[in-house]
């Protein structure tokens, strides 16, 4: 037995050594942790249990004589905040973390297990892509993972950290997951690299400029969060999980805290100016309402005209969607519609109630927007809200006009509770535009068109640019004092906690894409 144990230990030692001290040093010099250091940093101390450490690489003529401990990916389970999670961590020190058949199969097995158990899957990506020596088998390994990413979407949360290269078709595994987090300066994602681009289009571009974390956080919208180094990303994953349930059958955990549920929010009275053209800080509004001022914003640098993220209200996890009047006057454009629609669906599949804060003039006008398909993209947002069966609360902070009024979770699109501040205004359009259209002839015919226009605008404002017409028709449930916002939102959320909503049978809906 001693001999057998010694052999087992010897084999395990070789596995734990990964690609060896030189490559590990290179990894550290690049500012990155090793695959195993990342797992230790991510999970509750000492909780990791490894699976399949002795997995062997596929035998192909080109793989002869090559060593691939654990086949370049460490897989297993452990705890985060006391809850079970499944993790795979690609080992760049082993053949560049390239994905061979066994590597892919290990990840696929882990995903199967995670779904049987009902626990989140976290992927730590750091890989040179398909293992060239294994040819089509390595592509098959990717296929096994992509297939599960899609089939298990909405079953358990799937989180992808990009902590090194992620290139070629390999990007589609993270892209199919719920959340993508990238480390600043050490990670990149692209379909075709700088060399190929140069040979095809003659464009010259660096790795960072092509697919670094800044690009995917600001321009492409691929990344949900960008953080400093491995540590920053791994800490963000721990935080993100506090808002999520273990699986689609569960609710997110309650997070009791010291912030009183009845806390008044009088500071909001001075925040929002009744003049709809005056911008204010929507982030400040959110932080004032939520528990302990804590808001985890997702995609903060992308489509900044809409804000999406998680917070707690009275200990309950909520997803917040808010117009941001500081950017494009909060108008909805293509990117904002995509960002919001995706977030709404993320909340809905994981039973996270949605709070919508409205201050919007409409969809962004413009030839470019129309030609790029604002109709198709805006439709995603309407679809996502209507489809969502989680509790849905809307607070109309200020203006809410036209199609955007409907798109921002209005009563008729399925909101459970609609509140408005006295500054709220629901109308087909702003008073200036409306008066110009419906009183055009009268204005033109008058002796003093400017004065008549001003009088008509004032008349329209009085009649429609307020929350009371909509409240009078039942489109708004109550007009509230801003100082009561937090208290009332928590009460409504608690009332809605047992909400059940059945939908007609279908295979699945056909969401506009
Ligand atoms: C096998 C690979 C490999 C690969 C790198 N290595 N890429 N082994 N398959 N795809 C090995 C190297 O030989 C080296 O081994 C070690 O990994 C580290 O690589 P380096 O080049 O020394 O590292 P670095 O300088 O940091 O450069 C990293 C890199 C580069 C930029 C990722 O390795 C690279 O460009 N690799 C090729 C990437 C690629 O084209 N992959 C296929 C993409 S297509 P030693 O023994 O020297 O340490 C794809 C399709 C997916 O992925 C399809 C899904 C459907």
UniProtKB/TrEMBL annotation:
Keywords: Ligase. Coiled coil: none annotated. GO terms for biological process: carbon fixation. Residues 1-256 form the CoA carboxyltransferase N-terminal domain. InterPro entries: AccD/PCCB, AcCoA_carboxyl_beta, ClpP/crotonase-like_dom_sf, COA_CT_C, COA_CT_N. One of its GO terms (cellular component) is acetyl-CoA carboxylase complex. Residues 260-495 form the CoA carboxyltransferase C-terminal domain. SUPFAM superfamilies: ClpP/crotonase. Its EC number is 6.4.1.3. GO terms for molecular function: acetyl-CoA carboxylase activity; propionyl-CoA carboxylase activity. Belongs to the AccD/PCCB family. This is Propionyl-CoA carboxylase beta chain. It comes from Meiothermus luteus.
């Amino acid at each position: 037995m001693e001999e057998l144990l010694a052999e087992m230990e010897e084999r395990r030692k070789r596995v734990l050594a990964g690609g060896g001290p030189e490559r590990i040093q290179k990894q550290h010099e690049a500012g990155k942790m090793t695959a195993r250091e990342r797992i230790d940093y991510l999970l509750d101390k000492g909780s990791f249990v490894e699976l399949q450490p002795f997995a062997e690489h596929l035998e192909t003529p080109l793989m002869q004589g090559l060593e691939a401990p654990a086949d370049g990916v460490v897989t297993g389970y452990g705890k985060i905040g006391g809850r079970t999670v499944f993790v795979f961590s690609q080992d760049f020190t082993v053949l560049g973390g390239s994905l061979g058949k066994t590597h892919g199969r290990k990840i696929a097995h882990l995903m199967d297990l995670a779904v049987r158990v009902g626990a989140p899957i976290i992927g730590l990506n750091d890989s040179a892509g398909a293992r060239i020596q294994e040819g089509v088998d390595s592509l098959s390994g990717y296929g096994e993972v992509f297939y599960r990413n899609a089939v298990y979407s909405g079953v358990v949360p799937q989180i992808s950290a990009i902590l090194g290269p992620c290139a070629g078709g390999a990007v589609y595994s993270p892209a199919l997951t719920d959340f993508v987090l990238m480390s600043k300066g050490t990670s990149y994602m692209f379909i075709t690299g700088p060399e190929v681009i140069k040979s095809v289009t003659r464009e010259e571009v660096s790795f960072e400029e092509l697919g670094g974390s800044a690009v995917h956080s600001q321009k492409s919208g691929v990344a949900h969060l960008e953080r400093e180094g491995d540590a920053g990303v791994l800490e963000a994953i721990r935080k993100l999980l506090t808002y999520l349930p273990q699986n689609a059958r569960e609710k997110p955990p309650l997070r009791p805290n010291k912030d009183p549920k009845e806390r008044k929010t009088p500071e909001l009275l001075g925040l929002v100016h009744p003049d709809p053209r005056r911008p204010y800080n929507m982030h400040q509004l959110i932080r004032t309402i939520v528990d302990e001022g804590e808001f985890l914003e997702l995609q903060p640098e992308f489509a900044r005209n809409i804000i999406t993220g998680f917070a707690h209200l009275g200990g309950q996890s909520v997803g917040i969607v808010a117009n941001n009047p500081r950017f494009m006057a909060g108008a909805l454009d293509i990117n904002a519609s995509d960002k919001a629609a995706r977030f709404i669906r993320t909340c809905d599949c994981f039973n996270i109630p949605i709070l919508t804060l409205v201050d919007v003039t409409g969809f962004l006008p413009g030839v470019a927007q129309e030609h790029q398909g604002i109709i198709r993209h805006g439709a995603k947002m309407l679809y996502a809200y209507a489809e969502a069966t989680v509790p849905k609360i809307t607070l109309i902070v200020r203006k809410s006009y036209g199609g955007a009024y409907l798109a921002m979770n209005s009563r008729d699109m399925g909101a459970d509770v609609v509140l408005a501040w006295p500054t709220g205004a629901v109308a087909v359009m702003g008073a200036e535009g409306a008066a110009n259209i419906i009183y055009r002839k009268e204005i033109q015919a008058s002796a003093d068109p400017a004065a008549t226009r001003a009088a008509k605008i004032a008349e329209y404002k009085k009649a429609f640019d307020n929350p009371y017409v909509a409240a009078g028709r039942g489109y708004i449930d109550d007009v509230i004092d801003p100082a009561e916002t937090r208290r009332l939102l928590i009460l409504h959320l608690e009332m809605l906690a047992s909400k059940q909503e059945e939908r007609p049978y279908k295979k699945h809906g056909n969401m506009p894409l």
